[in-house]
Amino acid sequence: MWFDNLSCLCSLGQKLHANAESNSDELVDPPKVEEKLGAVPHGLSTDSDVVKREAESMSKKRLRSNAEKFEFQAEVSRLMDIIINSLYSNKDIFLRELISNASDALDKIRFLSLTDKEILGEGDDTKLEIKIKLDKENKILSIRDRGVGMTKEDLINNLGTLAKSGTSAFMDKMQTGDDLNLIGQFGVGFYSVYLVADYVEVISKHNDDKQYVWESKADGAFAISEDTYNEPLGRGTEIRLHLKDEAGEYLEESKLKDLVKKYSEFINFPIYLWASKEVDDSSDDEDEQESTDGEEQKLKTKTVEQMTCDWERLNDVKAIWLRSPKEVTNEEYVKFYQSLSKDFGDEKPMTWSHFNAEGDVEFKAVLFVPPKAPTDLYENYHTVNRSNLKLYVRRVFISDEFDELLPKYLMFLMGLVDSDTLPLNVSREMLQQHESLKTIKKKLIRKAFDMLRKLAEEDPDESSDDKDKKGKSVEDSKGNDEKRGQYTKFWNEFGKSIKLGIVEDATNRNRLAKLLRFETTKSDGKLTTLDKYISRMKSGQKDIFYITGPNKEQLKKSPFLERLKKKNYEVIFFTEPVDEYLMQYLMDYENKKFQSVSKEGLKLGKDSNDKEIKELFKELTKWWKETLASEDVDDVTISNRLADTPCVVVTSKYGWSANMERIMQSQTLSETGRQGYTRGKRVLEINARHPIVKELRERVAKDPEVNSSLLLLLLLLMHITKKSLNLILIFLTSLKS
């Protein structure tokens, strides 16, 4: 076995592979090693046949002649071409991807062992660890794990084909200018090996199959054969990278140590490197010398420095979630987030929360808000579960697809939960029904809200009180600069999730409403809150006014706002499609009801002339209502929201808004009949102060049986904007002649 045999007898200075050439079928047999050496605590005895098989396998870069050949899936070949021809300078990522995959394999076998202890085997097979070894002479870097291993079918499916989502998403990212640093997020991290290697062997043994070798030179094909060349692995996988000439730096121990510390420090399994070190060998000199002053003869000691090799552990940091939050630095939290998310970009998580829950249900947790939302976060939102929390039970990894820990709308959070209360040796289905899960979920939600609220409170841009900015120290100012704009950034990335939470979570609706952000007619292009809106409400104002539409620019010009702006009322702009659903569930806040300014029922205070105006225009509104009876117009009333526009159509209070109809009509699967049933009736509101409406009132009063020309004018009034007012006036003048 490559890892546990003495393929590199450093202490004796032997070079067993010196004569193993890539084009040679004959090897010079090295001396037989009959016993283990103290310098290699995990070493096994070996013989010339083992060394010959290993050297033969590792030194040649051609596929085995007896192997079964396969063609790569087209997308795999395309991906490998991108990687091989990439000018990407950070080739270091390959090691972190292989270690991450090895860690996943170890997690799987440990989870399976909870219900079947015999699955781990005996002896060294029970040691769940990752080992890295170098062969400088043959330019080979090997990574070995004792994880679950792969069957022959697994090797074909996992390394020869790609999951559709991971491949296409990664390809899209590459085409939009992103770099290979994100490769691990899409489940295709293994192929990063071709950044540094031109020939790769994957030796794997699964408990349910024989040991096989997968090999490829990234030339569009791969081969699989039963492994008769190497010592049995017992269980697990070993990956051998035959490095390119320009990748020689990865044969240096110091380089590998730095990479493991940088990228894989928080892997939950021991990572060992077969490393060399100097050992002092002290001995007594047999030559005795007499001192010049006649003193006793003394023994003279000499020191000899000797090189030995041993397994050196590279990651001995205690798991972050087991430590006190006061002991963990910000840098450690950032590194831990990167190891969880496989996002090693320059951006840090926006914020995080590390806490211990005590009581009837005890657990430890770390939650992170990622710096960016995944591009597919809201795709298939209601049908696909996207959990980003890893569940541990008493430090044993259980699953990273456990959807019961957080509600759907908080699935964007990343992190880890380690419970001391949940049982270990039960099936996942039984675990999902465990009573403790409800308590864990409830506490996680509350902590998530606290984390987001704190993010907003610490953002200087969220505070409108200039007094808070006075008396701050230089250090405070620097801290404020780092936190400035963070909640706005969060809202731009994940605001839709908060809105979906208001729709879905009635219990926490009010808490979520406090996290809402939006622009208004008075916010000067900045985001504001419901609490700030209420603090600015006019005396006597009972409702929170809002308007929905496709964009802010269009809403600013809406005739629905004319009177409101003149009376100095503030109106909220809602411009996302989800806002229409949001306002169907967010009925009130702090005892203030929400009122759409584009629907009937708008109240702006009483006008002393209201009764007189209604009576004056009674005949016109009656005539208009009869004329439009066939047009789904339920009523015609005098408007209290218009100032410059002659008339406007509003929707009924409990039906769809015009914006909602527009959204539904844009969906190709919507049914026309269903739209007509749901949208409800219309109400035509007329501006009694407008000259055109006054002219119409006079004409209807003189001639209730108005001619078709006046009906045409009516239609013009409904569809022509006030920019065409002159056209209508000209038309009215022509009617008088």
Tell me what you see in this structure.
33% of the residues lie in helices and 18% in strands. It has 23 helices and 22 strands. Strands 1-6-5-4-7-3-2-8-9 form a nine-stranded mixed beta sheet, with helices on one face. Strands 10-11-14-12-13 form a five-stranded mixed beta sheet, with helices on both faces. Strands 15-17-16-19-18 form a five-stranded mixed beta sheet. Strand 10 and strand 11 form a beta hairpin. The longest helix has 23 residues, at 435-457. It is elongated and about 120 Å long. The model is unreliable at 1-47, 50-59, 286-292, 465-470, 672-677 and 721-725 (pLDDT under 50).
Task: Identify the notable features of this structure and list them briefly.
5-stranded mixed sheet, 23 helices, 737 residues, 9-stranded mixed sheet, elongated, alpha+beta
Brief overview:
With 737 residues, this protein is an alpha+beta fold.
Tell me the number of helical segments per DSSP (H or I, 4 or more residues long).
Answer: 23
Overall form:
elongated
Strand order of the largest sheet: 1-6-5-4-7-3-2-8-9
Strand content: 15-25%
Major β-sheet profile: 9 strands, mixed
Q: Structural class, from helix and strand content?
A: alpha+beta
Tell me how many strands there are.
22
- The parts where pLDDT drops under 50 for at least 5 residues are 1-47, 50-59, 286-292, 465-470, 672-677, 721-725
Intertermini distance:
107 Å
Specify the helix fraction band: 25-40%
**Average pLDDT for all residues:** 78
Rounded to the nearest angstrom, the radius of gyration is: 37 Å
